[in-house]
Write a structure and sequence with these properties.
- This protein has no helices and eleven strands.
- Helices cover 0% and strands 41% of the residues.
- By secondary structure, the protein is mainly beta.
- Strand 7 and strand 8 form a beta hairpin.
- The protein has one domain.
- The protein is globular and about 40 Å long.
């Protein structure tokens, strides 16, 4: 498989775990075609491209993946110097539909767009 560079973007509202403010953020993630596609919750992930993540579509199009965001609140404690800390989000996809994005802590020291099963224990913030 060719090396994938880049990501898609999911625009979503949620509570930032760092500052507890409601924010609208663009979440970088890889699912389906990786081609800088902008999505919102409720949209279906497309699988028409040669460069997909994961490489093969899960049997029923249901899986979870890690995405990354930077809080848009300039007063958030995640902002250090001029650049915010990258935070993680667990993105739930059912039947290719983006259904939920929840801030989580998985592997904060890595940006690897991990694909997970829905039932994996993630330490999701509630």
């Amino acid at each position: 498989m060719a090396k994938i560079i880049g990501s898609n973007k999911l625009v979503s509202d949620f509570i930032c775990p760092q500052c507890a403010k409601s924010v609208t953020c663009g979440i970088g993630f890889r699912a389906g075609d990786v081609a800088n596609i902008q999505y919102k919750l409720g949209d279906k992930v497309t699988w028409n491209n040669a460069l997909t993540w994961p490489e093969k579509r899960p049997l029923d199009g249901t899986f979870s993946t890690i995405g990354y965001f930077e809080c848009e609140n300039l007063h958030c404690t995640s902002w250090q110097d001029c650049f915010p800390q990258v935070q993680e989000v667990l993105i739930y996809i059912e039947n290719d539909c983006l259904i939920k994005a929840v801030p989580c802590r998985y592997k904060p020291e890595q940006l690897d767009y991990t694909v997970l099963r829905v039932d994996d224990d993630m330490g999701v913030f509630t």
